[in-house]
Write a structure and sequence with these properties.
Domain AAA+ ATPase: 40-231
Largest sheet: 6 strands, mixed
Bound molecules: adenosine-5'-triphosphate
Radius of gyration: 19 Å
Protein name: Phosphate ABC transporter ATP-binding protein PstB
InterPro entries: AAA+_ATPase, ABC_transporter-like_ATP-bd, ABC_transporter-like_CS, P-loop_NTPase, PstB-like
Organism: Lyngbya confervoides BDU141951
Pfam family, one: ABC_tran
């Protein structure tokens, strides 16, 4: 793999940039030498086999790796041109502006209302909370389903509804970017479709990165796709790297690397 193959011209303004980023856990390199430009108001998909570092790179973009013991990030990650790892930067503020939705829907064991209000309050929101709750739930396409159940527990909802509640919770703290780590892998196809439609609406206002193992999902929802792979080390480990990053249509129909073609067509799936 040469770095020349790993990227192509950036189509629009990059909101987040990774330059020569490597991450290790307890001194063992997990993923190395990643360059990415994440375009604003687009959906970028990270695809590739298990263990190639997709979630690891995703977590670098909002400093979630700070919370993982033994994790070390090297290289440069910028957000609107500012080094996210500069020591003057507050990682909590980074996570407010770059929110995250996880694989398994994880509403708090609180009411639907509190699931939205809690984070907003902690972030110092002083406006009309009822309005914010409604606005966030509407944006996450779940308001109609829950408007009469504000005092019910968020856990009483179906898996798909819980995930949309978690998206509403992320939205409530007014991020610019939403990172989604396999947000549909625990959901049925109908709930998955709802979230995909929602992502298309959200990208008008937010920049989205999604990690997914679902090739059809990546080709359906994303504008740009980053394909990762991992190479074996002599010690029997694996090190992830970025194979290529391009418009999704190119990755799926005319990739630069044969291995990408094999992977996205399911030959190695
Ligand atoms: N908290 C951690 N502590 C130690 N090693 C970790 C940790 N998280 C990830 N790793 C290692 O880093 C490498 C990349 O893992 P990561 O989860 O980023 O890959 P991935 O491509 O997202 O995988 P998957 O598709 O299975 O979720 C793997 O070898 C994994 O074991």
């Amino acid at each position: 793999m040469s770095q020349a193959n790993a990227s192509s011209a950036t189509p629009s303004k990059a909101v987040l940039k990774a330059e020569n980023v490597s991450v290790s856990y307890n001194s063992k390199v997990a993923v190395k030498g990643v360059y990415l430009d994440i375009p604003i108001n687009q959906i970028t998909a990270f695809i590739g086999p298990s263990g190639c570092g997709k979630s690891t790179i995703l977590r670098c973009f909002n400093r979630m790796n700070d919370l993982v013991s033994g994790a070390k990030v090297e290289g440069l990650i910028t957000f609107h041109g500012v080094n996210l790892y500069d020591r003057r930067i507050d990682p909590v503020e980074v996570r407010r502006r770059i929110g995250m939705v996880f694989q398994k829907p994880n509403p708090f064991p609180k009411t639907i209302y509190e699931n939205i209000a809690f984070g907003a309050r902690i972030n110092g929101y002083v406006g009309d909370m009822d309005e914010l709750v409604e606005k966030s739930l509407r944006k996450a396409a779940i308001w109609d389903e829950v408007k009469d159940k504000m005092k019910d527990s968020g856990l009483s909802l179906s898996g798909g509804q819980q995930q949309r509640l978690c998206i509403a919770r992320a939205i409530a703290i007014e991020p610019e970017v939403i990172l989604m780590d396999e947000p549909c892998s625990a959901l049925d196809p109908i709930s998955t479709l709802k979230i995909e439609e929602l992502m298309q609406e959200l990208k008008e206002q937010y920049t989205i990165i999604i990690v997914t193992h679902n090739m059809q999902q990546a080709s359906r929802v994303s504008d740009r796709t980053a394909f990762f792979n991992a190479e074996a080390t002599p010690e029997g480990g694996k090190i992830g790297y970025l194979v290529e990053f391009d418009d999704t249509v190119n990755i799926f129909t005319n990739p630069k690397e044969d291995y990408t073609r094999d992977y996205v067509s399911g030959r190695f799936g």
